[in-house]
Specification:
The complex is a heterodimer of chains A (258) and B (353).
Chain A lengths: L4 E10 L2 E11 L4 E5 L6 H7 L10 E9 L2 E2 L7 H7 E4 L11 H12 L4 H14 L3 H4 L12 H13 L5 E5 L7 H14 L4 E5 L3 H7 L2 E7 L6 E8 H6 L4 H7 L5
Parallel strand pairs in A: 3-8, 3-9, 6-7, 7-8
Antiparallel strand pairs in A: 1-2, 1-4, 4-5, 9-10
Chain B lengths: L2 H6 L14 H19 L5 H23 L2 H35 L5 H5 L15 H32 L3 H14 L3 H14 L6 H26 L2 H9 L4 H29 L3 H6 L18 H11 L4 H32 L6
Helix pairs in contact in B: 2-3, 3-4, 4-14, 6-9, 6-11, 6-13, 7-9, 8-9, 9-11, 10-11, 11-14, 13-14
The chains are: A alpha/beta (258), B mainly alpha (353).
Amino acid sequence: MAKRIDVSGLTAYYGSHKAIEDISMTVEPRTVTAFIGPSGCGKSTFLRTLNRMHEVTPGGRVEGKVLLDDEDLYGHAIDPVSVRREIGMVFQRPNPFPTMSIFDNVAAGLRLAGSYKKSELTDVVEKSLKGANLWNEVKDRLNKPGSGLSGGQQQRLCIARAIAVEPKVLLMDEPCSALDPISTLAIEDLIGELKERFTIVIVTHNMQQAARVSDRTAFFNLAAVGQPGKLIEIDDTERIFSNPSVQATEDYISGRFG
Amino acid sequence: MSNAAVADKPVSTLQGATLPKWSPYAIAGGSIVVAVLIGLLGSLDSKIQWGLIAAILFVVGTYVIAARVEGSRQAKDRIATSLVWVAFLLAVVPLVSLLWTTIARGVKVLDIYFLTHSMGVVGDTEPGGGIYHAIIGSLEQVGLATLIGAPIGVLTAIYLVEYGQGKLSKAITFFVDVMTGIPSIVAGLFILSLMLMWDMQPFGFAGSCALAILMMPVVVRSTEEMLKLVPNELREASLALGIPKWRTILKVVLPTAIGGITTGIMLSVARIAGETAPVLLLVFGNPFINNDPFHGAQASLPLYIYQQFAQSAGSGAAYDRAWAASLTLIAFVMILNLVARGIARWKAPKTGR
């Protein structure tokens, strides 16, 4: 079910500004890969190129290849909408749909994006909310608005919404940066469970978090402000945090950066 | 108490002399009394003059008293507050006076008979008759105009916000701005020129077309602002679920903004409901009931009011009818506004727990 991602020679632009340059990496199925690096180095931009969300930004365009199990996501006959059904995304700020109830939020992907059987909908919603460790907290108020939940609950609701459509890969763009430590812990535990079923890529500013949740870690950096961001190295998380092969990585991780 | 004791007590830098809480009311009451006295003694006839004198006395009095007691900074603060109050009252007085006059004069002949009968063969100077034909005409013309104007306006706004980039959207925005400034008589003349080209007689739908032209830019502008308020994160969240763009707009963006969009449409409906000029040109007016907006002249409320005033040659009965029709029109617009508020509240994104 989970799929592997192969990126080769990927360069992304905002208009004429080159945001990231020549990135190549492989993300194995059923692993958690963390992206770390300073602000503005293109981690989020790179993440958004993986499910073709980058081109939603005005002026956004991409060169290079992203293979999802040997199929090029940027091939000419590929429908970006189908790509996004296979590769789900969770954003930095929790963004449940304000007009919809908790139930409708989780069901939104199925109802609006694809074919579904009415009888299955309730099961899928329950399964997804359980998968996001939210079921026990909301099972008595499924028809209440999703925006009435706390920040951490809203973020888990967004994760439930993303996994309800059964994506092959789950992209997370700093999912815990707006949350308190307890909610963060809940989400990190959840990531550990989700990697049994999905391939997960997570962008984080928190290096301890990268060390806690990920199997592989990629370090991004940029030469100077205005220069495109580049992938410095990607390796097993343990190795990156104990004995990285590039000096810049070690400087960043140990706080000697800059 | 000795001087030494006073010196021992530290002087607070936070305290100062303060006017009591009731002082603005006292100053207001005092200025009104003085203004009335000046008015009576100076034998000023106009009550408006009395009111203006009271307003000026209130502002000046507040400043002088506050400056003497509290100091100049507090006095400036108080003068700003009193100016805001005076401006508010000056704005409200004409509104209340208008409502009061319309209600007082309008209720004279406003009854079920008036609402359910047309002018028919009743002469303009005779008593009797009603506005049924005008209500029917107004409802049909404004309804048809809304059916044309609102969808086009909303769709244009969706194009501008969700799809439009580059020259085309800039050109549309520019022309929408130009259209906002079109005087209603010009919109009427535009449709009239078309009617003359095809040699057509006045009919209700022609008026609807002119009203739709007047309505569209207002709807575009208000809808555009509402759609811009929808956070981009919601669009991205929806797209990232693999929901196509058109369903994202239909199921996520529009429902989030629907309250504001409805309010905008209702306000523009209220605006065109009072338009007289294009209706006069294109629908012409008709004392008989004409239920068919596509054939023959019709009446409408604003046109009826105008004609009753203009053609009655000072007859009291016609004046009463005009006031009653004005009251009906105001009530109609007010009900529309209340409905819009209701819809906006009902559809607004919920935040309850």
